[in-house]
Fold:
Amino acid sequence: MRRLQLLFTTTALLKQGLANGSRSGADHYRAQPTGDPYNSRPYDQGESAADQDSWGYAYPQPPYEGGGYPEDGAWNDPSNGPVPLSNEAMAPRANAEQSANERSEGKDVVAVMQSSAMGKLAVATTASVCGAALAGFISANTVNRPLVAIALGLALGALFSQVGGPVGELFRAMAVTLILALRRLPSLRQHYPLLKQLKAFVVRRRVRFPPNAPQNLWRYTPAPPAPGQKASVRFSMARTVMAVFFLSGLIGNMIAKTIHIFFPFMITLAFSILGAYVTTLEASHGDFVRCLGMKFVEIIRILFDAAGETKMTPKTLALAGQLGTKLGKLDQKYQIRSRVGSATSFLWGKATASAERIQKDMKSEGGDEAFSPPPPVHDTYDGYDVYNAPPQSYQASPRY
Structure:
């Protein structure tokens, strides 16, 4: 009899333990130290002591209506299954997810990118590429030594990405901007299939761009996506025409500088007008040019969005402000502006005096007669003027 009582007592204790274990088990939202912001929160966010387990982790709000956990006995009844959440009960968790996303978006993108060794290497490499591009552009418009400038830009870009101050911040921001833009560029292939449009242009089988657009492309507006369908193509006819006008002019300028036949600006303007006209055509080549122009617009938009995330504009203004402050201090110390102004005034006075002296010399002693052009020189033979000689009659020489 005593053994039966012991058996029943053990069975009851096991049931009680299973009920408590189901409350704190992994299948019933027990918080484990996994780093998940929703399943492992330290007891520092306002939870009550009843929601804290023995490990110091707090139970998140369980997804059941009414809040809290069911009573221990309710778990043993299969009919008391979990009740699906309503919108009101889902609101706290949705707000928590939104706040977590806002906290992650509020972080500095550059700092997040450099939080790992591979990120630091990627930022340094991309910063060196940006430095080489800037140095090559400056060299092409000044000294025309591209190889030396590109090598110097590579070294300076990698160096500036590791230093502090506004210069380092700006170079790191440029590098992260380029990385983010390169990551987002593949998303444009779905809406702007440039190779597909090129193939349609070559085989003369038209694929209209943008798809499902009205006859008047100037009135195109993206429609909201239907359930189960992809979003409409982002398209603006005005922006596309401006983009093609710029790209065509750039191509025309390169051709004009290569062939050296006409004035470069005339060829540039002709190519720009031709490209803008082709953009408006309802043909396969018009579709290809529209796809190219709008893809260029989207690439620029991606670059601007990435620059906004990395705060390129504030960092550029900070560097410009620091340079202005240093130049102001140098000007106060060495009087640079006054000396440059004095040198400019001196050179201008010398040039003006020289011009006046030359003009005075031209008008002195005889005026314009002293500098009158010489008389025309005629062909002569032994002092005889051939052109001004009087006409003479021809006489035949006598025969001997």
In short: The beta strands are 41-42, 57-58, 380-381, 384-385. Residues 69 and 244 are 63 Å apart (CA to CA).
